[in-house]
Write a structure and sequence with these properties.
Oligomer: single chain
Shape: globular
Number of helices: 5
Helix content: 25-40%
Radius of gyration: 15 Å
Length: 146
């Protein structure tokens, strides 16, 4: 596995891909917090499309901490020797943040990051080379991981 900190595509991806996606822009308000207590839902699903966990989004924008909370909840339920492949529309940015800010240090070495196929071709080419599921070990040729 290519370590993120040594990957030239990682630094490039975190800035150029961030500008490409509304979900990566944490400052963009997509729903009014003055009219609604909850502005959305974020769900974590397995490769069978079954909901494993959900959180209410209560702030404007899709903040990374919602994904971090879901991942921490997942890994509390898994045996400590298990690894998991995580596909997220801006997985490159979340991976970069976990390395940069030392988020989830107890589980970060158990995560194989990727970008969901639906979003992969919207990412910059260097990012696709690193995070596209068909270019990552363990993801296979389907849209989900296993």
């Amino acid at each position: 596995m290519l370590a993120f900190s040594k990957c030239a595509a990682g630094a490039l991806c975190s800035t150029s891909c961030e500008r490409s996606f509304l979900a990566a822009n944490e400052n963009r308000e997509k729903a009014s917090t003055s009219a609604f207590a909850d502005t959305g839902l974020m769900a974590m699903i397995c490769h069978h499309d079954r909901v494993l966990s959900m959180v209410n989004i209560t702030s404007a924008g899709e903040k990374q901490y919602y994904a971090v909370v879901l991942l921490e909840a997942l890994f509390r339920e898994l045996p400590t020797w298990w690894r998991a492949g995580i596909l997220y529309d801006v997985g490159c940015n979340l991976h970069h943040s976990t390395v940069k800010w030392n988020l989830m240090p107890q589980i970060s070495d158990r995560i194989e990051w990727g970008i969901s196929v639906f979003h992969a071709f919207s990412h910059q080419w260097p990012c696709q080379c690193v995070y596209h599921p068909q270019k990552r070990d363990g993801f296979g040729l389907c849209k989900e991981f296993f």
